[in-house]
Every structure is written in C-alpha cells, then in structure tokens.
Amino acid sequence: MAPRQPRHHVPQLVAWIAQSIRDAQAQGVVLGISGGIDSAVCAALAKKALGDNVLGLILPCHTLPEDVQDARSVCHHLAVAHEEIDLSDAFDQLARLLGSQNPKLLGNLKARLRMAVLYHRAAELGYLVMGTSNRSEWEVGYFTKYGDGAADIQPIVHLLKKDVQRLARALKLPKPILTKPPSAGLWPGQTDEEELGFTYKQLDSFLSGQHRSVPSSVRKRIEKLRALTAHKRRPPLRFFEETVEPYPEQRSSALEPSPADRSVEALTVISKAITSDQYLEDILRLIVMVTAQAMNSSVCSLWLLDEQERVLRLRATQAINPEYVKDRVLKVGEGVVGKVVVENKPHIAFNVLEDPYFKEKDLARHLGLVSLLSMPMRVKDRVIGVINCYTSYPHRFTQLEMNVLTAVANQAAVAIENTELMVKSKVIQEELEKRKIIEKAKDILISRLNLSGEDAYRWLQKKSMDTRKSMREVAEAVLLTLES
User: Which residues form a coiled coil (predicted)?
Assistant: First the structure.
C-alpha cells in the first residue's frame, strides 16, 4: 500500500468529523489554537467539515507574544471565529494556592486550566471539544492527562507527526506554521524534542516499525515512556467490590484489577451482550472494543467467513484509522487471516513486518502494528471467522491472553451462529407463510374461474410478471378481492 495521500485523507477526515458531530447531536466544535501545526491542521479540518460552527480559543498563559500572534494568524488564515482569553492571572492565583514551583507540574496545570475553559465554552454553545493530539505524542504519553489529552473528538490521533506535516502542506497552512519547531509552550524556551530526548523522526520511525533505524538508546527510552505512560491512554480504573480484601496492604490490588480480573470482566460483558436483544453489528462492535481493552491491544478486528464466495470480510473493529476500517476482503488461505481459517488454529506473530504470512505490511507500518495474535472462531469445529489482536509494541502473548481470546472467539461464534439460525428460521417461516397464501389463492381461482391447479398457478405467475409484483402480493390481492 502506498503512503497515505493527503488529497484522499483530507476528505475522509472531513466527512468523519461532520458525521461524528451529527451522531453526537452537537452544534459544532471548540478547540484550542496554540499557533502550532497540530491545532492548525485540526482547525482547518473542522472548518471544512462544519463551516462557521467552529470556535477557536486562543488561551495565552504567560505565552510568548510571537506564539499568540501565530495563533491569531491561523484563525485569520482559516477564517475561523475565535476568542482570546488571557489565563495568566487565573493561573498565577491557582499556582500560589498550590505552592508548587516544579516546571512540569505548572505546565500540566496550564494545560488543565485551558481544557477547563474549552469545556466551559463548549457547554455554553452545545459544541464538542476537539482535541489536537497526534499519534506520535499519544503513544509515548506526551500530553497532560485531563489537559490537552481530554477531548470529545480526536481527528488526528491516528497520524504520526510526519503525516500531520504532510496534511498541513496539503491544507496550505501558512509557512511559519509549517516550519515552527514543535513546542507545547508549557514554559519559555521549551521544545518537544528536547524534553522527549529524541527527535520526531526517530519516534515516527520506531512507531512505523523501522526499529533498526533507531539507535538502541532511543528505542529503550521510547519503550520506557510507553510503559510509564500506559495509564494515560487507558480509561480510569474501576473499583471491583468483589476483589476487595480487608487488609490495607492489599488495597492497591483491589483498586487496580489484574489482567485476570480484566479478562473475567470482559467475558462477562460479552456474555451479557450475546444474551441481549442487541443487533449483531452492535454485539460485534462491543466484542472488539471490550477485547481490545482487556488485551491492551491497539487494534482488535473481527473477520467473518463468506462460505459461498470463500472470502473473509472485515465486520468489526475499534480502530479509528480510515485506512483500516474501510471495506476489506481476503480470500481463504490469503494472509494470516486466511491461513487461520484453513488450518483452524491460532497464529502468533511477534513482529508482523517479519512474518511471511502477513500481507498488509505497509498498512502495519503506517498504523504502527507490531505483534499479532490471530484466533479462529469456531462452531462445532467449523471455522466461521477470525478475531485479531494487535499491539503497537513487541509483545509475547501469555497463556492467559491466549485463553481469553479463545473464549472471546467462541462467544462471538455463538452470537453469530444464533443470529444466523434466527435469520434462517425467519426465512423458512416466511417461505411457508408465502406458500400457504399462494395455495389459498389457487384454491379460490380453481373454484371461481374453473381452472386447473396448474392453470391457476400460471395465472398468478402471469399477473406477477405483468404487474411486476411478487407472487405473494398477487395472491394477497386475490384473497382480498375474491374471498368472501
């Protein structure tokens, strides 16, 4: 697959933003404009998607004048309505109350103060808050939790920094924005790369799977950051009353579920969904979302087998990348998914880029997919589909994870089989009902028009062809007009 083309990706993102706002029944979006490339790209996409229903907030907080001017120029260039609210005094008062002089803590305080203002204004207008995080920063936790990481919609969180830069050029943003060194502006002179300890080029190479091009020391730092900041990318931990022990030293484990606890919860949620009256598509979507969370997967996808055409179709995924969620079809025996169907057994790839069976290597590079566990979905030893779990880092799947995905695959197969049986039963029932109506209409025609059984059937057939209506509709009309 060729690298993502901005001319194609811009319309995809614009359509997705517009649809997301409609689905949320919101009126528009509010976003912070910093004068950096990420917020400029998001503002440009929002403007294309929502027109005048976009409000940019410029929120200086002891910010350099040139950064404020850059933010203004972005708003003027895009013709985006904007407000400027100086938070310096409010920040100073809050900082004095808290008493901390740690630059990082104060920087996080700025980010959270700004997000509070964004949500306040959004609530006033009936808007959603648009985030401006990119994937490069998201993957290493380079954002403030409940600060710039908090948002209702994140249009570029699937894009690496280099992809955002390409998008910015395609959107014809001002040159000073394109060439400006990335900075969160948390304190004077702060730059992203200096604080991270590596360049965006190195980070993007690592996340694209090009590990060998990145120095070992940088690889280790990236992996360490990902591990230390994993909690920032997860939903808040939930309290599980049944795991609470009465001893103080055990309270931390009670408040932080183990992988086994998360797995049990996931299987419980899926079991309840299967026995509910939800539509199959909703159940499958829930399965991949819950499974991704339990398995700590960056992408979870579910493929179903079309036995007549001998192909597998992507039916559900929690991934947000438009390139992954588009309609995709694989032949039986093609790639890892096709192999799992043929062999009826799991497939594990420590690095999909080095796996000879994995075909979509360009897609994996773009999405940063590394390790894969692919599990067949079976009904009485008959494979009906495959469920995949990818990680965005090198990972050796444990026996617990294998067992969990096996259980999920089996439950998903049951849900699909039950739905198919219900559909088949309904089709059979409708067919029997149709035959009864046609037979009854035939009997009336035989009696009223003195026709033979064969002639009566042909009469109904001819009327069906002449009127372009179904045999059932013609038979019902006969019953309505001639039956007394």
Answer: none
